[in-house]
Amino acid sequence: MEQKLKVFLTVVKHMNFSRAAEELFITQPAVSQYVKSLEDELGIKLIDRTNKKIRLTKAGSLVAYYGGEISTLNEKMKQAVEDLAGEVKGKLSVGASYSFGEYILPHIVADFLEKFPSVDPFISIGNTHEIAEKVIRDEIDLGVVEGTISSSKLVAEKIATDRMFVIKGKKEHVEKRVHLNEETWIVREQGSGTREAFEWFAEKNGIQPAKILEFGSTQIIKEAVEAGLGVALLSEWTIRNELELEKLKIVGGGSLYYERNFYVIIRDAPFMTKTAETFLHFLRRD
User: Which of 278, 264, 239 is nearest to 160 (CA)?
Assistant: First the structure.
């Protein structure tokens, strides 16, 4: 069934028999025959063909879903077997939340590739919730996130601590904490670890923002603060360049801050690829 399923999944990918034939380097009639043979084996129609368009039946959608799972597991099985005797090489899929992913992870990956040049990395950036979901769905090997993760499907391990500071534009004049209640706070979206850190920080310090602006990336927040739209709580990792260039300033001279932890998260599963496991050890070392 393996070849039949591969052909069927390629048809589903393109929703076109001709394009599937081109990708597989076989003829279109051969593609049709493979799909027909799979339908005969399963005893049910998978694809409706009308007016030169194709549409998956309900059974076809089920086979596409579970077939994709089977294909992914098959590739992981082959890589795991190769890992037993092989070198550290091949695909490494890592996800990270914005602060760590955009400012720290690139340097770690660069150091890792110096030692293991045969690795082919793929980096996915998202908020904490998005990265956790990708790990759970087995779309990435591991993730690095801030904030709390509540899932029995994941294992989390602390790997770093980050200090966050209140920042303002160079032209602003906010110096005392009491004034922060009168300020517009620029924050990340819900689901972001940075947003969660801000909410903890505000509660701890009795801050009730006069107004909140919600932006979807750290870079936009920095630009907005620099432009004088408000103040923000951001990681020291993300503001180093702006502080050196004197585009931003830390409120209270650094006495007002919040510490948070970063965690590496993996699926609660018995196996990891050798490459992913080696990268995990590399993260622990850093």
Answer: 264
